[in-house]
Amino acid sequence: MKTILAADIGGTNCRLGLFKLQKNKLSMDKAAWIETGSIARADALMNAFERELETSPEKANAVSVAIAGPVEECVKGGLSNGNLELDFAPLNEKKKRYYLINDFMAQAYAVLSPEGERASWIAGPKKPAISGVRAVIGAGTGLGQAILAPLDGNKKVKTSHWLAVASENGHSAFPFVNGAENDFHTFLRTRLNIPYATGDETVTGRGLAALHEFLTGEKLTPAQVGGQVLSRDTPTLKWFSRFYARACRNWILSTMCEAGLWIAGGIAAQNPLVINSEYFHNELYNSPYRSKTWDDFLKSVPVFLMEDTNSGLWGAARFAQQELEADEPTVENVSNPEKEVPPAMEKMTITPESA
After folding, report:
1. What is the end-to-end Cα distance of the chain in Å, rounded?
2. Under CATH, what is the fold of the domain 2-102+309-350?
3. CB 60 within 8 A of CB 4
4. Banded pLDDT at 60 (limits 50, 70, 90)
């Protein structure tokens, strides 16, 4: 049995988790939440692991940390909306077992974890394909999106090696499609003093609050709108469900995620009617083409919701699991020790998307 320490660091909260890996099965043994402000450097995070989870990082087989910000070569990065900077390079001098990844890259790997398997069915087929491209999207403070691709490319064989690719698509221009929506776009542009609204200003908490004010004149916080307005049939629910579905539809078409789309926590988990309403489903399949090609494709993609707020922890641990498995010698490599075991993922720079 192997142990993995995982963390999911956001601007406000830091989630910590102790995972066990036995016979390629991942399970969470213990979890804790602390304030991100209590962590100043990497050594403070290591101390938090030992204090909160009663496990020394030095004794763990791997330590995997997801952070809401840019990451370089899986060892160095920091918060986009905070002062925390982490550098695991000194910790990896003897052997690389400390990993730092972007938070939405972690959400992508969560799709492969038990949390992804427990996700609630929303639309399309009720089971994902064994392999093929998968995608993840999540609206919260920002609009996060990522892609998950199998490395072996064999659609008929279940793979254990995947590559998560982060995306900045939440910062692309959001499509408004009629006069009333264009009026809201003008409202957003004026309010925020921006040339155009992106998904990050529209399908997020602040977009929800702005939408409710535009429709009703009432100024509420995103949490207040969620608690008071999104649990019943209201104009705000109708508009926001439509916007969220449009973001999902566009991401499905952009990624061709035939194996499924997973919606990660945030607004959808706290306000399930947003993605379970008729407005969401009608917009999700609102294809403008006369041909049935893309309409049929959209309906062939399963859509799920990961409701657990610890999904980022599961994703960080699942990434570490893959790295540990890549380090294990295969039969071929035992017989031919000069042949290297390929790493699960090449070094790469990940750019941020916070959910």
Report:
1. 32
2. Nucleotidyltransferase; domain 5 (3.30.420)
3. yes
4. very high
Q: Which fold has domain 119-306?
A: Hexokinase; domain 1 (3.40.367)
The domain segmentation of the chain, as residue ranges, is 2-102+309-350, 119-306
On whether the CB atoms of residues 79 and 14 are closer than 8 A, the answer is no
Residues in the chain: 355
Structural element, H or E, at residue 294: helix 293-300
Counting other chains too, the contacts that 83-91 makes at CB distance below 8 Å and 24 or more residues apart are: 84/9, 84/36, 84/39, 84/40, 85/41, 86/41, 86/42, 86/45, 87/42, 88/42, 91/42
Is the predicted pLDDT of residue 43 greater than 70, yes or no?
Answer: yes
Strands 2-9 and 98-102: unpaired
What are the tens digits of pLDDT across the range 110-131? Answer: 999 999 999 999 999 998 888 8
Instruction: Report whether 84 contacts 40 (CB < 8 A).
Output: yes
